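R.M. (postdoc): so does anyone remember the format we settled on? I'll just put the structure tokens first.
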């Protein structure tokens, strides 16, 4: 597993880490996921959850932990969550500090089943997030009957948003949607100072991306220095607005 920080510019601190699958030689998540067959999907999903929580605990993570999950691997929410509850109990990790991200890599054909998963997880104290909103299968219709706690804005919308009026209009609309439906927004794929500051200026202060830090394998961060410097600069610009270009 690798961990990438999610920051809050308004508070100038790391608020969460996302756990990301990596291969034994650091291979990408896609290179691993693409080799998981249907008959192994459930076991793989369960193993990733357990490994992420165990490793986060061993590394002394104090922030919330965000874990991707594959909805089609969950055949029965109450049964499938047992391994997660057991590892949380074993390492003393509060369920309230786990966010399950609904990944957009697969289409969910049974929306009612996904609704049951989210409500079942919420009843156990977990939070949920809709990942990659605005791309792939994570589209507007998902929110007609799903009520995630977090909405993660996809990199395709974030890219160059500080200079692109169309992206700015779309992001403002998503921000309004999140506020109206009571969802916290996280901007994914933030790679430049300009993007970071513009997003913060419209109220999207929760951010994740290479501008702050790349995912670090088996570690919370390979080098916190540059990340903290960028976070401090973004926070100062947020508190004292100026040209973000």
């Amino acid at each position: 597993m690798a961990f990438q920080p999610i920051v809050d510019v308004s508070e100038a601190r790391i608020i969460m880490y996302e756990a990301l699958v990596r291969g034994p030689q650091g291979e990408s998540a896609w290179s691993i996921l693409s080799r998981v067959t249907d008959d192994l999907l459930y076991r793989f999903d369960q193993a990733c959850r357990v490994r992420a929580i165990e490793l986060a605990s061993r590394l002394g993570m104090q922030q919330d932990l965000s874990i991707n999950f594959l909805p089609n691997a969950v055949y029965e929410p109450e049964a499938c969550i047992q391994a997660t509850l057991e590892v949380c109990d074993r390492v003393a990790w509060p369920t309230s500090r786990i966010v399950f991200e609904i990944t957009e890599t697969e289409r969910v054909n049974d929306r009612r089943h996904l609704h049951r998963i989210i409500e079942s997880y919420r009843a156990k104290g977990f939070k949920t997030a809709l990942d990659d909103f605005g791309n792939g299968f994570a589209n507007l219709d998902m929110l007609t009957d799903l009520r995630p706690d977090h909405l993660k804005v996809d990199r395709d919308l974030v890219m160059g948003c500080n200079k692109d009026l169309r992206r700015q209009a779309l992001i403002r609309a998503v921000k309004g949607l999140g506020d109206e439906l009571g969802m916290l927004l996280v901007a994914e794929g933030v790679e430049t100072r300009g993007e970071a500051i513009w997003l913060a200026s419209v109220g999207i202060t929760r951010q994740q991306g290479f501008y702050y830090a790349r995912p670090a394998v088996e570690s919370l961060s390979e080098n916190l220095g540059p990340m903290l410097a960028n976070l401090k600069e973004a926070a100062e610009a947020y508190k004292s607005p100026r040209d973000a270009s």
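R.M.: ...and that's the designed sequence above, right after the tokens. Also worth knowing: The chain has nine helices and nine strands. The two ends are 35 Å apart (CA to CA).
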